[in-house]
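protien #1 (seq + structre)
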Amino acid sequence: MGSIAAVSPAILAAGIRKVGSGLHATHSGNSGIGVVTMSLVVAIDGPGGSGKSTVAYRLAAMLLLPMLSTGLYFRTVAWGLSSVVLPDQDDDTADINDWFDHHEVAVEGQVGLLDGRALDEELRSKRVQEVLAQVSANPTVRRRILELERAEIAKLGSCVVEGRDIGSVVWPDAVCKFYLVARLKVRLERRPEEGLQLLDRDLKDTTRYHAPLKVAEDAFVVDNSDESLDVLIARMGDLVKLRAKSC
């Protein structure tokens, strides 16, 4: 892994001050005086094979926070939709909404749940890989999953969340945002079962109209190619603590 670089030179001085938007919530104590409590949400974004899940898991463990892997929502939905309809146009909206209205999608740890059925290895199957980019690019799918993501983050309160648009779309008020990158060779070695489909999805994710994969303006870019994971997690933990203090 290489260095951690700030996208914005002023990032260390920038504080997030939006009250009532998920970062801060105000309630009254016994004295009747308003008390502000902070939800510590850490966003980790990046392309496939950049190590988001591993880093998020380790960082969450160090910070004693729960972790949410939002990509599992899309993989679970891709598994379900692949046998029903392949959404690639806006006119599929009615069918997709009907599917969501009749199925329950959830994520627990590293497992996706579809109508209570746990999906693990299935989410890395060829069946999912073939339709994942197509399903993920559909605006109706993204809107329905966005609702699920935000509801789960709000329920958790404080957590480490990893995905592809967490800091830019899902939870823009995250206390600290990271964008992971890695050399192409390293990424392909980490995802050998995906091969060229990994690159195809990256292209589609970065060029799609709705919520494209991109670096949030106030995110730290993290090169996750070579450096020791322990060292990287320690540095990221320090940055999280620094940002939390500035809020």
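ok now protien #2
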Amino acid sequence: MNASTLDAPRTPQRRKGSNFEKWGWLYMRVSGVLLIVLIFGHLFVNLMVGEGINAIDFGFVAGKLADPFWQWWDVLMLWLGFIHGANGMRTIVNDYVLNTKVRAALVWIIGIVAALMIVLGTLVVFTFDPCIGVTESSALWAQCQA
């Protein structure tokens, strides 16, 4: 093949090893479907069940975060959402940032920020204690004494 010959359009380029872009593309589709189920389930329970939106207050959130089912529901939503968003931002950066060093720096920043937010969010969900800092003058005093 000489320099003036081009491959036919859509000729598959075979590379050895894992195809990160393919897995990223597949992740976006699967996580998108799961996020739709998780988000609409979250909205339905919070806005439609029981007293609806009128029931949402600190006690409602504290009650949900005390239940392991809802902890894992929220953590799964958090993880999928942040990774989905970070992967989307990575794709945008790869498409539009031409300078390779700037692109690499931005992709690293996106990954670090997403990882940090996932860790912090997970810690909040699993270590949430509504009784920290409650005093006798607080409205939560009676519930925290039980």
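The chain has a mean pLDDT of 87.
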